[in-house]
Amino acid sequence: MVLLVVVATSGLALAVVVNESWKAARDAAQTHFSQLAEAVRDRVQTLFANVEIPVNILAGQPQVAAAMVSDGRQHPAYPLFAKTVLAVHDLYSIYVANGDGDFLQVIATRDQSGILAAHHAPADTALIVRTILNSEDGQRRQRWLFLDTFGKVLRDYQDVTADYDPRQRRWYGQATSSEGVTVSPPYLFNSLKAPGVTASRHVGNGVVVGADLTLASLQAFLDRQEISEHGGIIVFDGNHQLMALSGHQMPSMPAMSQVTALSGPPFDAVFSNQSTARSEHQLSVHRERLRGKGDDAIEVAVFAPQSDFTGRVDSMRRNIFTGAVVLAVVSLALAWWLAHHIVRPVKQLAGDAERTLDWDFAAAHVHSSFIAEISSLSDGFAMMKRSLVETLERNPVGIVIAGQDGRVEYANPAYVANVGADNLAQVVGRTVQLKAQAAGEPMTYAQLAAQARGGVWQGEMLNHRINGGVFWESVVLAPVHEDDGGLSHYIGVHQDISERRRHRDEMARLVEHLNDANAELERFAYVASHDLREPLRTVSTFLQLLQKRFGGQMGAEADEFIQFAVNGAQRMNDLVNDLLVYSRVGGAKDEVVAVDCAALCRSVLESLGEVIAEAGADIRVQTLPVVLGQPIRLTQVFQNLICNAVKFRAPGRAPLVQVSYLGLDKGYHHFSVADNGIGIEASDQDVFEVFRRLHGPGQYQGTGIGLAICKRVVSRHGGRIWYQANPGGGTVFHFTLSADGGVATLRKTEPSVGGPEAVADRLLPG
Question: Is the pTM of this model over 0.90?
Answer without folding.
Answer: no
